[in-house]
Amino acid sequence: xxxxxxxxxxxxxxxxxxxxxxxxxxxxxxxxxxxxxxxxxxxxxxxxxxxxxxxxxxxxxxxxxxxxxxxxxxxxxxxxxxxxxxxxxxxxxxxxxxxxxxxxxxxxxxxxxxxxxxxxxxxxxxxxxxxxxxxxxxxxxxxxxxxxxxxxxxxxxxxxxxxxxxxxxxxxxxxxxxxxxxxxxxxxxxxxxxxxxxxxxxxxxx
Length: 206
Hints:
- The structure is a single chain.
- The protein has 206 residues and is of the alpha+beta class.
- The chain folds into two domains: 2-67; 74-199, Heat Shock Protein 90 (2-Layer Sandwich), CATH 3.30.565.
- 50% of the residues lie in helices and 19% in strands.
- The chain has helices spanning 2-15, 19-32, 39-67, 77-94, 112-129, 173-183, and strands at residues 74-75, 97-101, 110-111, 134-142, 146-155, 186-190, 193-199.
- The strands form two sheets. It has a five-stranded mixed sheet with strand order 2-4-5-7-6.
- Strand 4 and strand 5 (146-155) form a beta hairpin.
- It has six helices and seven strands, in the order αααβαββαββαββ.
- The longest helix is centred in the first third of the chain and has 29 residues, at 39-67.
- The two termini are 37 Å apart.
- This is Signal transduction histidine kinase-like protein.
- It comes from Ramlibacter tataouinensis (strain ATCC BAA-407 / DSM 14655 / LMG 21543 / TTB310).
């Protein structure tokens, strides 16, 4: 269910670096057809294509780690939050939600699979429940046993967004609880504020 809801964002993540390749190729092709082609410009276009191709390959490999997660992989909380926010930001914005990431560096690391699963599921669940326009604010603090990641949802002014996921049922709180239990993450809710307690990987933090 979660991967189905993430599919549009993953699709965008995959193609965003592929689309410019065709446009750059067409420009390069026109320049090479000139009576006296500027080889330096053609070389510049080739470098751009190479850069986009490398970025596209990196995106493909990254999506594979979402589909087949490495259970023991760990990462700093701030890096994982930034990654999840980047994946969903465009989709959320189109639907009328602003996402503000205020998570700074924390000592220690958390399980990448647990963070990815719980944060993306939480963002989807919260926006399923709170109509747009709304603002989503992410903050975090370090605890003795793990990182505590907080999502606060506030109604906002402005026009609502567009429905982009018709046909999918919403992620219910029971779904979040099941995912949290599977990932050994503590889930708490107080009104429009959710907290995820993600255990540190390795030695406990002070």
